[in-house]
Amino acid sequence: MNTDKIIAKKSLGQHFLKNESVIGKIIELGEISPADQVMEIGPGPGALTGILRTLPCQKLWLLEKDDVFAQNHAQYAQEHGLDHMRVFHMDALTFPWHELEGNWKIMGNLPYNVASPMMWDIVSKVPHLQKAVFMIQKEVAERIRAKEGSKTYGALSAWIQSFCKTEKGFVIRPSAFTPPPKVDSEIIVFRPLPKDQLPKDPENLAKVIKASFSQRRKQLHGILQKAFPDRYTENIWNELEIQKEVRAEMLSPIQFQKLTQLLFK
To answer: pTM of the full predicted structure?
Structure first.
């Protein structure tokens, strides 16, 4: 589909990838094999989809919010007898990730305005995520990969790194899209951590991380005292072996998990 003739919808944050070299590199990072179940989020006119359809895999599911694109992909699958391909005409933010069965590889050019909450859900709710390859705003990718102690380390960093190892793919300039966005994009790769390293209490971990970074300039003991008055005690700092005057950005993902266990034991 010729992306130059398609009018992007600002309301959906649409920027269509047109650089064939970039498209090929993204597909390579997906490492699609015949045994894989693959999901693409926001296929749009089909830059990635056109190649994914030609690769042998068990399932190819597309999540598309745009009426026209969803209809076009569904029609293509029907006309070409692609029984393994299924199109979900819906907002990916409302998809029931926890219901996915088996191993999945998830890919997509995520709209900047919804990328963060979408990735937050995917890494924590997909039961058997095998790998994720996302194109997102470069600044957001840098925040996700940031380590504790840095200015860019935040709630999204601590949360995603609690579930996945994050890797930088490559940077994509605005000229690779139509219309070109105002900022650089980056491919980021998520590889889930071993099951024994995953958070034991993700629901409460989310509460602790969100509360901790709600006022990142303040000392963490004061924030936790107000956020969890019935659970907070001074003893937690001795058990964590850190000073209570510490700020949220100094705690590693593992320390946030330990902190959650102490608050909700």
So the answer is: 0.91
